Amino acid sequence: MSLVADVVASIRSRGGKEKTGKLGIDGQLEELVKRAEEGRVGVFQALGSRYSKLTTALHDTTLLHDRVNAALRDLTNLHDSIEQEVESGVKSSVGEVGGLVRRWKEVVVGLEAANTLLKIHTLFDEAHNAQLIHSFLTTAENLAKVELLLQETSEKEVEGNLEIISSLKAELLIRRTQLGYTIGEVWGETVTWDEERLNDGSQSVSLLIHVVNGKSSQNNCEELQHILGAFYLLGELQRRITGLGKNLMRHFFGPIISSNAAVKVVERSDGYSIKVTQPKGPEEKASAILVFGRLQQTFLMLHKSLLCIKVHTDSADGNEDDEGLSLMQLLGKEIGEEFTELLIKECLAEAVPCSRAQLDEYEEVKRATEDFQQFLSGNGFYNAQDKSIIEYAANVDVVFSNKACAHILEQAREMMKRPIHVTVCVTPLEPDGGLIIQDETGQKLVKSTLRLEQLLAAKTFNLPKCQIR
């Protein structure tokens, strides 16, 4: 019969009435405490030898792993047996074994510390195994749980003073760094940028979104979703979104809006390709309707291949408001304001006419602007309250007046910049000639019905010799 069973049988047979000597309850409880202490020390020694030398080995031998797991099973069984059966007998005899009970409670605290360390060890092993099969989200979730346990442990009196805690924190840092590097490599192989200068002097930039490990479109989205979720748990997601947003503004949206760049999208067997070609030298800007079409074509392919992916953040902080945020929404928060300012300045402002005769043509631009706004809002790039481009396009009276005035001022400025010293000499055609009267057809009148000759001098319309521009 096991030691715990012997103690329970002894307590029940004596009913708590018969006093026992050193070999009775006291002796048996001391033996239990001794075994618990040995188990606790064994766990600390096993884990200490495993994590104290992180620079030489990150994983111990199979024998040590079996030893730790066996210790965990023994400690769990021992702790449950003490709580369920022995504690009731001890409390009934508290007068006799009060000191031993206090000692036992101290050992229980130590057992809890050992159990916490074993949980951390198990999470480390599970994280390692998940990373080997590229289950990055599971790996990041386990490391996040380890971080939480270490924070709770550091605040406790017993565990916080253990030397192994600092080693486990160092191990966690190494694991997180290694995971971040691995995921970064996979992300770099999945989303790649390729620049090319063509023979005619134009420049093209291609975004290639590869399918991960030859998976289907749906499975590829799940794979990317796990990568983005792991980035979030590691605190790397915002940096990745910032980098993606800068590249899109620089290589895609900027050239399309400002430089009349052409767009070509291709769905290939190994993924998706978006190519933007910027012509050589300055060219006439594309119309607003053409710009909207090219931008929508680009956004559609980006959304289909990448930006539709939702990032699961609830596993990190339990914030349900962030659950299901798509990469398109996160990108809109990052570059939405910059994109709007560029679109208004370089596209809509240029589309506003300078004369009232062209206002009817501008109505088509307004409708195209509303459709583009609805498209971006429907896909999450703009939120429902953002109406910047529609308000700008609809406020045509003020915009038109400002642009018409600006156009007139520009013409005046150009005239003022012309050289004023370039003149020609003008002399009278007939210095001494009289005033010639003509009718409406240009024929000379012999006698004028008008009294023009009497009212005006003969040389009234003769200019003196002068210099004019």
UniProtKB/TrEMBL annotation:
Q: Which GO terms describe its cellular component?
A: cytoplasm; nucleus; RZZ complex
**UniProt xrefs under InterPro entries:** Zw10_middle, Zw10_N
GO BP terms, alphabetized: endoplasmic reticulum to Golgi vesicle-mediated transport; mitotic spindle assembly checkpoint signaling
| Highest taxon of the lineage | Eukaryota
Entries under Pfam families matching the protein: Zw10_middle, Zw10_N
User: Which residues are in the Centromere/kinetochore protein zw10 N-terminal domain?
Assistant: 33-123
Centromere/kinetochore protein zw10 middle domain mapped to chain residues: 220-416
Q: Transmembrane region positions?
A: none
Protein name from the UniProt record: Centromere/kinetochore protein zw10-like
Q: Which organism is it from?
A: Homarus americanus (American lobster)
What gene makes this protein? Zw10-L
